[in-house]
Each structure stands twice: as structure tokens, then as C-alpha cells.
Amino acid sequence: MYAEKIKDYTIKKDAVILAIESSCDETAASVIKGGRKILSSEIMSSCLEHVRFGGVVPEIASRAHTTAISLVVEKAIKSANITLSDIDAVAVTYGSGLLGALLVGVSYAKTLAYSLGVPLIPVSHIRGHLSAAYLENEDLKPPFISLLASGGHTAIIVVKDYDDYQILGGTLDDAVGEAFDKVARVLGLSYPGGPNVENLARQGANAVKLPKMLKGEGGYNFSYSGLKTAVINYVHGKDQKGEVVNKADVAHSFQCSALDILIEKTILATKEYGVSTVTAGGGVVANGYLRENLTCACQKAGVKLVLPPKWLCTDNAAMIGAEGYIQYQKGNFADLSLNAVARINFK
Ligand SMILES: Nc1ncnc2c1ncn2[C@@H]1O[C@H](COP(=O)(O)OP(=O)(O)O)[C@@H](O)[C@H]1O
Ligand SMILES: [Mg+2]
């Protein structure tokens, strides 16, 4: 019955999409109109419950989602000033992420789509991060170069069309956010590592010599494992000799090495592919050093930068609504057999 109903569905340009995100420790819901206008965005996080374990504990995250999801969805509908009957489609992150956590959002979205008789749109979390830029600038249109820097991914992408991506290169080992989290741990900083490394780095200088990152020979690829190991060896070496480690200098030096290369290769891609707009997405793009230096580099290179605000770079449901709208326009609907997937290919 549901499948029959959806088959005859007429796609609307100004569709109101309710989006749900539950891939990690944030339970989020958002209402997006016409793919670009944020009517509401609500987030509840179980982040503090994970601090004493030094990282996200999947079972704790899943349980938190089960108690938060109804509240968050209700709040999103209320603050968007709409009613359930105004919802034209339900978009949901189905991967990548923690399986149990994803399942809470997917089950909720399925039930809601079924009961309202509207399409269910499966969204890739990573594509969501890239689509956050559409919410920052209503006029943004492909082609553009997108820098993706998150906890699980690092890549430079040519976005040729709304649904046509060419990945120029990515990480050969650790993702940049993962490197931040591991360096945070060795510096004795608590979870979440990225923002804590950034805060400490502000008090330090680029004074610790760290190995060079993959430059020209790596094409658009990155490697963070060597840099991470160098930081670990440096700190342990100093400890063993009983010398004091200037942790702020280590954080600052690491941050420069880890992020300068992302900016350099992004600008290079604009030149090689003759593209005059840059966007960025993913949790690491909330980093102030990256934001400032990417802004300067784009100005210098004469390219336009569309940089989503920090809250749209870290996990949220608005970006899932933006990407959901692209899939909605293409009629990429799921049936009720939709399942959560821990790892999905970017494509
Ligand atoms: N200010 C920051 N500086 C550096 N890294 C950050 C900052 N804020 C968040 N991060 C990093 O972003 C990552 C989480 O981003 P996210 O986009 O949610 O990852 P994913 O979607 O791949 O799981 C974590 O590794 C975190 O440390
Ligand atoms: Mg994310």
C-alpha cells in the first residue's frame, strides 16, 4: 500500500523535508524548505556521557538516541511552525555511522514516512556534510571544489553537478579528524579531541619540527599516520628523558602541518580544474585556523569561498535535509526495507 502511494507521488519544487540524523552521538532533526531554507534545526548530544571513556561508546549513544529522538523531532516541527501534514518527505541518514545509533533514526523515519504516506529518502552522512554549503549560500551551484575534512574522511572533490562527484584524492590512512583525536589523547586532552587541540594550539607556536606531509608527489592524496606517529614519538621521547613537553607548541605545530596541506591542495585543484568556487564541510572545518587560512588562500587565489558556519560543519540534520532534497528531486526514494549501513561508499 505504501509503495503504491509513493509510486504516484508528485515531486514538488518547494517541498518541506523533515530530516533526521543519528549516526554518532548527536540526535538531530531539521525542517528544510525547497532544499535551501532552514525552517528549524534541533540537536541533542550525548557527548558528555562519553567523556570519561575517551570516545563515543556505541551502546550509550544508541540508548541516548532512543530517549531523545521523539523530543528532537517534535521540537523541530514546533520551531519550524509547521504541522505533520505539511511534511512532504522524510530524509534520514542511513550510513555511514554506528549501526545501533543509525537504526534508531532509520526506524523512526520509516515509521513517520509510512504513517504520513510520504516518500522516505535515504541520505549518506558524508554527502550531507558536502551539501551543508547549499544552506550557507542559496545561489550556490556546481561546479565547485569541495574540501571534505571529518572524523572519518579527508578528500578533495570536484562537484560537477548536484549528484555528480569526482574524488580527486583522499587519505591513504587516518582521516584528519581522527589524527586530531589521537593527538588530543597523547596530549592528555579529553574527548572531543579536535576542539580541545584547537584551543590549546592558540597558546602555542609552530616550534616543533614535524615530518613533511605528502606534497606534490602524493597528488591529491593525504597521509596522516606518519604525522600522528611523529607527535606520539616526540611526546614519549621527551617524557622518557624527563624533559617538559610544551603541549601548546605541539598542538600548534601539529595543527599547522595537518591543515596547511588541505588548503594547499584545495587551491591547487581550483587551478587544475578551472573551477572558481570552493566549499568545505565536515567537523574539522569548524576549526578556526583552517577557516581563517582557507579564507585568506581563496582571496589570494581569486576564488569564491562558500564556507558553512561552524554548526553546519559538525553533525546536524539540516545538512541531511539539504542532501535529502537533491535525492528527492531525483526521485531516489527508499521502501520500508531500508536498513542502516555502517560503512557506505562515498559514491
Ligand atoms: N575545532 C575543531 N578542530 C579540529 N577538529 C575538529 C574540530 N571540531 C571537530 N573536529 C573533529 O571533527 C571530527 C568529527 O567530525 P564529523 O564531521 O562529525 O566526522 P564524521 O562525520 O566523519 O564522523 C572529529 O574527529 C573531531 O575531532
Ligand atoms: Mg559527521
Strand and helix layout:
Blueprint: H1 2-7, E1 16-21, E2 26-33, E3 37-45, H2 47-50, H3 58-79, E4 89-95, H4 99-116, E5 120-124, H5 125-136, E6 144-149, E7 154-161, E8 164-170, H6 176-186, H7 193-201, H8 225-240, H9 247-272, E9 277-281, H10 288-301, E10 304-306, H11 310-313, H12 318-329
Parallel strand pairs: 1-4, 4-5, 6-9, 9-10
Antiparallel strand pairs: 1-2, 2-3, 6-7, 7-8
Helix pairs in contact: 3-4, 5-12, 6-7, 6-8, 6-9, 7-9, 8-9, 9-10
Bound molecules: adenosine-5'-diphosphate and magnesium ion.
Structure description:
Helix 3 (58-79) runs parallel beside helix 4 and helix 6 packs antiparallel against helix 9 (247-272). The protein contains twelve helices and ten strands. It folds into two domains: 2-131 and 315-329, ATPase, nucleotide binding domain (Nucleotidyltransferase, domain 5); 142-313, ATPase, nucleotide binding domain (Nucleotidyltransferase, domain 5, 2-Layer Sandwich), CATH 3.30.420.40. With 347 residues, the protein is α/β, with parallel strands linked by helices. Bound molecules: adenosine-5'-diphosphate and magnesium ion. The site of magnesium ion has 5 residues, from helix 5.
Tell me the β content: 15-25%
Q: Termini separation (Å)?
A: 31 Å
Helix percent reads 40-55%
Give the low-confidence spans: none
Main β-sheet description: 5 strands, mixed
Bound molecules: adenosine-5'-diphosphate, magnesium ion
Number of strands: 10
Multimerization state? single chain
CATH overall fold name of the largest domain: Nucleotidyltransferase, domain 5
**CATH homologous superfamily heading of the largest domain:** ATPase, nucleotide binding domain
The count of helical stretches stands at 12
CATH architecture of the largest domain: 2-Layer Sandwich
Shape from CA axes? globular
Q: Please give the CATH class of the largest domain.
A: Alpha Beta
